[in-house]
Amino acid sequence: MKIGNNTNVPHNIEMTWPNKINIGENCSLENSIFFKHCGSWSKGYSIHIGDNTFIGKGCEFNISQKITIGKDCLIASGCKFIDHDHGMELSALMRIQKTINDEISIGNNVWIGVNVIVLKGVTIGNGAVIAAGAVVTKSIPENEIWGGTPARKIGQRT
């Protein structure tokens, strides 16, 4: 695990592969965060958190490919980030189908409200705001405000 200068990482976070986590400088992490890398061992980071970012209590990063979080972000408590899901073909049991993976990318200066879920393949643009409880299934442009299930545009930052 790579931890930048002046970053607060509590003692009770959980992780499966510490070598897959890169946390920038001046970050603040609260208790009970779970960093789960679902893939096999490999070199390089799959969870990258930019400088000056806050991550609230009880967040979960369930990552098989990669998540990148920019600088100066606010991620409230209880958020979940999942970059994969299962196939749903009728010809095979769901539990044995191949997973479908796609990276998550979060820009700089993004605010993600409490209990938001961000799913595979999503890019959240710089300056975007995601309302509490949203389920983000598609990419969000810069400086837009999104909310709901599934998330949709509800406003624009000015």
Automatic annotation (TrEMBL):
Cited CDD domains: LbH_MAT_like (cd04647)
Gene Ontology MF terms: acyltransferase activity
Keywords: Acyltransferase, Repeat, Transferase
PROSITE patterns assigned: HEXAPEP_TRANSFERASES (PS00101)
Entry EC number(s): 2.3.1.-
Pfam families per UniProt: Hexapep, Hexapep_2
EC primary class: transferase
Keyword Lyase: no
Keyword Transcription: no
UniProt name for this protein: Acyltransferase
